[in-house]
Amino acid sequence: MRQRSALNRLKDNLLQLEINTILKDEMTAQPMPALPHALLDIAGNYYNRMVAYRIPAHLFFQTGTRAKDVPSDAVVIGPFDTPPVEGLRPLRVDAETFDRLRWAARVAESKVTDPQRRQILVRIRNNCDTLKAILKSAQPDVAEGPTRTQVADEPAKLDTWVSVDRDDYVTIQKIWDVGTEQVMIQTAISVSGDVNTRIRRSLTPAEQASLLEVHKVAVTVSVTCWQNLVATAVDLMKAGLSVIGRMRGR
Is the Cβ–Cβ distance between 82 and 43 less than 8 Å? Predict the structure, then answer.
């Protein structure tokens, strides 16, 4: 079943292509770190982004409290005192962390008036649901994963904290890459030839022109790689069918 699911996802990926042009505040020019660190990066980014939006995300990390039990009325968007360090569950490499982040984003969605911020919160909620499912599958017996300190102090265990298949790894990598940054231009291309390009309304004509030039190059490179990948997949399929045909003819 797992192999069939992977094959179905591969087929879906070959049938469509998505290219995003993103504005990012800070770039380290570094590849994604080891999986535990990457997941903690995502969790920290989501938490800090909500704090930057003046969302009291710390309310959902109180020890002894389930995130879904935090009353909506307690979540007030606006200035708040620095949350105490004591009594809060630290960010961990586990499904529970992303469940708490998910509930914080969900409750805040209906309270945030800025549409761009609301869109980021929707992304956080959806991605947390995805990461929860991945971690529950990868860590079925783990109730409490490691913190950043534990991961850093035991580098020999990096590969044992969490292990996922290639498909889930790519999903995590995309979530880590995009983060909470704003997608300015997006192009979606299907194998049938349909092309949809979306441009953020708030861009000025000058900003649109400069970003479209960058986006155009990205689309060209992506389409070329995609075509080569599809051609390789077709050749492999033909070779497989040829082998099957010869075996049946014996």
Answer: no
154: which residues sit within 8 A by CB, 6+ positions away? 146
84-93 pLDDT, tens per residue? 778 899 999 9
Residue 147 in any domain: the answer is yes
Residue 92 inside a domain? The answer is: yes
Q: Nearest Cα to 104, choosing from 147, 130, 64, 68?
A: 68
Let me know if 247 is exposed, middle or buried by CB neighbors in 10 A (0-12, 13-18, 19+): exposed
Tokens of 160: 């044992």
Range of the domain at 97: 25-180
Count of domains for the chain:
1
Instruction: List Cα–Cα distances, 74 to 56, 93, 108, 111, 167, in angstroms.
Output: 9, 27, 11, 11, 38
Decide if 194 is inside a domain: no
Q: What is the pTM of this model?
A: 0.76
From residue 197, give the alpha-carbon distance in Å to each of 102, 208, 215.
29, 12, 10
- Please name the residue ranges forming H helices in 18-114: 35-52, 95-109
Identify whether 161 is part of a domain.
yes
